Structures
1.
Amino acid sequence: SQTIHQWPATLVQPVGSPLSLECTVEGTSNPNLYWYRQAAGRGLQLLFYSVGIGQISSEVPQNLSASRPQDRQFILSSKKLLLSDSGFYLCAWSVLVGFTNEQYFGPGTRLTVT
Amino acid sequence: DQQVKQNSPSLSVQEGRISILNCDYTNSMFDYFLWYKKYPAEGPTFLISISSIKDKNEDGRFTVFLNKSAKHLSLHIVPSQPGDSAVYFCAASGAGNTGKLIFGQGTTLQVKP
């Protein structure tokens, strides 16, 4: 069966510090991968998605970047965190089969920028 | 531009009664719709989905209805249980290999014992 891992679970970082969040998927090949952010009291905002190694699409201009160095690894980064980067970050994967398009989410990382 | 909208931020129902969560969309190119359930500090979990070629899909206590002419879908939970208390997100996707989902803002459901 497929599993998705995210770490760390929680993170407190000062403004201006770098960020690296990692996501890995097991049990599937060539998944589509996604990074979302949920700000306090808000919905899920798609930040980046990737349909293959080295292929990254950005949905919103921001202080963050993403990379996919391996088929089942997705990394979210920042060189200098802003207060507005605080939120709950979620990684998800999907494998498109016909009409079906379910995404499966990891446990999330709670990031607090102080 | 909010392409997927959940206009009710919250809903409270009594245990055993029906919960109806609503969702509207604006993009007629969406062809697949999903509902997710989310507990605090956890990732969303997939509940049920429906493709645009159907108007109803049922899975146990959960039924999703799609009205394409009104660009509206709803999730019915019958009977509601206290463990159903969570935030529910609807999502939509269109054609293409990206698998991108557009999520609504979520509705917080509280089921009272």
2.
Amino acid sequence: KQEVTQIPAALSVPEGENLVLNCSFTDSAIYNLQWFRQDPGKGLTSLLLIQSSQREQTSGRLNASLDKSSGRSTLYIAASQPGDSATYLCAPATTGGSYIPTFGRGTSLIVHP
Amino acid sequence: SQTIHQWPATLVQPVGSPLSLECTVEGTSNPNLYWYRQAAGRGLQLLFYSVGIGQISSEVPQNLSASRPQDRQFILSSKKLLLSDSGFYLCAWSLDDVGSYGYTFGSGTRLTVV
């Protein structure tokens, strides 16, 4: 059974810092890994999708890396802004059976002005 | 482009009343559809998923049921709500069984059972 751990659970930083959010998973046999953002009371918004054959994906100030063999993914946020405040979740999808990602508990991020 | 609609956005229901939440997807055919629940302070819990019309898989035995009467429609139901059914319900879809485009979530329904 896939287990996903996200560290840190919470993070509070001043505006402008470069951030690193970590995700580790126990089963490296994955189709892909997806990073999501969730604002309070809202649904999940997809940020980046990394297929198992890829090492990283970039979108604007966001960069996600994937090291499948070690069961790790990292989300980098450059030059953080107050609007980045949200909970970030990672979700690797294990191969075999239906496509059902396993979600971490998330990292709750607060960026202070 | 594909879009996912989920309604209502919020719902307050008394204990023992029925429930029906609806999710529809536009712009694609034969999607995989999913219902999740997110309780306060807890992670996402997969409730049901469907790979086709009339095909429902239940992940957690509980007071809820799901149906897929049409290709792009997924309905979450309960005959009698419990207090413990309160939570944030999310519908999601994927294009295929290998995650070619990952997951897309709807905006969610906040259910409060009183």
3.
Amino acid sequence: GDSVTQMEGPVTLSEEAFLTINCTYTATGYPSLFWYVQYPGEGLQLLLKATKADDKGSNKGFEATYRKETTSFHLEKGSVQVSDSAVYFCALSRSGGGADGLTFGKGTHLIIQP
Amino acid sequence: NAGVTQTPKFQVLKTGQSMTLQCAQDMNHEYMSWYRQDPGMGLRLIHYSVGAGITDQGEVPNGYNVSRSTTEDFPLRLLSAAPSQTSVYFCASSRAPGEQYFGPGTRLTVT
């Protein structure tokens, strides 16, 4: 079945550091890929998405590129801020109009220190 | 727009009790889903619906029932609560598969 693997946390960085959170997936067909962010005590918010190979999703300084050859969708940001501290989830949705929800990774807790 | 709303925010149940978690959305989305979030497990899909009158099982459906009589509402019923159902429950909706909007969650404790 489908699966998403992302690096375990917590990941602790200093403010203005470069961020990479790795995500790889296993899925049949051509899934859409997503990054969601969860701030403390809140629900998940869509951060960015990519729907086909070589697409780059971007939002709020975060970027991720859909790499079909390596089945990866790594999240990057050039200069993190304290306000980026949150849990980040990589997720996929099967293609072909499938509506059966999302398959999530286990989440990566990011802590940014001033 | 209120988006996706969930009630209650917190609930404590005794083993064997039943209850319904409410979920509503005002965005006219066709797709709705229920997930549970457990430490170290990420989110797992319980049930989902692609429209009024249509529901299907996700990854972890046992012990839960759903129905979808209207586009707006998608309640989740726990038939006989068990401690293993202690979790945070999220409802989500979307216009298209994959890009989902999440509610704030319900934290359920079963003793």
